[in-house]
Amino acid sequence: MVVNKLKFKLNRLTLVGVMAIVATTIGVSVSSVKSQSPALIKIDGSSTVYPISAAVAEEFQRARRNAIRVTVGISGTGGGFKKFCRGETDISNASRPILAEELQACRAAGVQFIELPVAYDALTVVVNPQNNWATNMTVPELKKMWEPTAQGSITKWNQVRQGWPDAPLKLFGAGADSGTFDYFTEAIVGKSKSSRGDYTASEDDNVLVQGVSRDRNALGYFGYAYYEANKARLKAVAINGVLPSRQAVENGSYKPLSRPIFIYVNAKSAQRNEVRDFVNFYISNAPRLVPVVRYVPLPAQVYRIATSHFQNRKLGTVFAGDAPVGLTIQQLLQREASQ
Amino acid sequence: MSGDNLQEIRKLIARKNVWDRIFAAIGLLSMLVGIVTLLALIIDLCSDGLPRLSWQFLTSFPSYKPEQAGILSAWVGTTLVMLLTAIAAIPLGVAAAIYLEEYAQKNWIADLIEINVTNLAGVPSIIYGLLALGLFVYKLNLGESIMAAGLTLALLILPIVIVTTRESIRAIPNIIREAAYALGASKWQMIWDHVLPYSIGGIMTGVIVGLSRAIGETAPIITIGALTFIAFLPDSPIKNEFPYISFSWLMSPFTVMPIQMFNWVSSPEPEFQVNAAAAGIVLILMTLAMNSLAIYLRYRFRKNIKW
């Protein structure tokens, strides 16, 4: 009994002691947290641009021997801009140019930025390898297939073009929350977010790959990277006679489904040494890393212009808040160079 | 007359026995559905992921090259977040349950609290994420840190811990309490020396269920801004200068296993799917390790109880 009591008291004493030690160390160490952590660069935004930024971040940290830390999140282009315009991130990944309302939010918060194109993406329309009829399609045919009025009425392949088989048309496409969906509907139907609803929608492109590769009568669309990684199971459809490829994107013949993708750098962050270092590293390594993660790199000339934009701190966007469709690299170049 | 009767009774018993067996078979079948599905899933996961599991996989950061990628930042992040969740949720949950069971007066306010706690256990996790985004990340200015994530998941499992702790406290016969009082124990002594040790089994079960739920949560963690690519570890909690212990890891950015897995599953290269399966195996092992620790503790505590 006595022993027990003693033990209990001892326990209580140690408990109080431990708590006191913990409290003091928290007090002492929390104050010194901020001064000690190494430089941190925060990137967030589009999942389309994510593979490029993550690859660059990885190489950059290795090259700088982990003296600088880089984090990359996926909040989507819109979610990324929300954080960016509140000044929470240094760099925002974007699969489309900044929109008017996002520009306004940035301006209201006093956030200025430098817009840098980093690569091209080609949305790819794919069918099953056993599909031997749909090798080439036109934009009006795709529109007929995907516009809202097609819902429930265009259900067979021969309704799209005469001579195609009397087989059911199974459609697979991006979910309504993705930038890919916005861009595809804008480019094909003519109005952003305007699409038929009776198709298999998924935010996860691998689900679409699976779906199309298992159904002879299927047609789907997603980013070029997913097509290239699954070439054995899928067949790309030529748009207006042009198959998606690096060359076709570079010479501007793959229209209107190719689009530039960007990073936006906070101008205030760009004054920090590590951010300047990182962005220069990004642009100079993009030609090497962009193809590795299966995107189309820009011509050297565009990267040169981007470098000079960054060095001269050219603020703002060349798109003035609208997202143009089917912008070729040449047109992008003209826009970038003209200002 | 009596022979007839006996035969009828025998028939009746035989009939009931048949029903008995049918019911046992249905019960067995229901159990098998769950177990076979689980086994199939785990076997599938293992056949995909086991070849990829290696020391290199556990000690490497994520990479765009599938064969070099690893889960170091993810498993360290998950471990730290779970640690913080346990530290925050267990004392709070147990204390709340003790108050509600032993101290609070039974009136309509207690009823109201009881209903609310039970309902909270069923609230979708994304709601907790939104609450945490507003409260922890912005109001308390914790940022997108391990601290914010640990507290969020603690909130998430708090109702589970409270409800199960209350159940197990309620299961302790009142004579134990009265016996303690009879020997002159104060209320607090009665609770600390008798009620708590005897109900520890039930409490541990609640903690297991809660933590197992928390370790797989993605939605609230993404909401508060866990990162997808992070190639460094939080600062070490031990330093070689005064005061030797550092808590800066609490404010460090992080990622967790489910997010890393999700990221790999949705990437185009099939090699990354293998990585995701391997990460899944590690996540299951982590859950099992956590649970076996709790089961061991429960066993130790129970051994010391002699009624």
SSE pattern of chain A: HHEHEHEHEEHEHEHEHEEHEHHH
Shape category of chain B: globular
Main beta sheet strand tally, sense and closure of chain B:
none
CATH topology of the largest domain in chain B: MetI-like fold
Biggest contact: A-B, 42 and 31 residues
Classify the fold: give the CATH topology of the largest domain in chain A: D-Maltodextrin-Binding Protein, domain 2
In the CATH hierarchy, what is the class of the largest domain in chain B?
A: Mainly Alpha
CATH superfamily of the largest domain in chain A: Periplasmic binding protein-like II
**Beta strand count of chain B:** 1
Average pLDDT of chain B, rounded to a whole number, is 87
- Structural category of chain B is mainly alpha
Q: Can you tell me the residue ranges of chain B where pLDDT is under 50 for at least 5 consecutive residues?
A: none
User: Unreliable stretches of chain A, pLDDT < 50, 5 or more residues?
Assistant: 1-7, 28-35
What Rg of chain B is obtained from the alpha carbons, in whole angstroms? Answer: 25 Å
- Termini gap of chain A: 87 Å
Query: H/E series of chain B, N to C?
Result: HHHHHHHHHEHH
What is the total number of structural domains of chain B? 2
Largest sheet: number of strands, sense, barrel closure of chain A? 9 strands, mixed
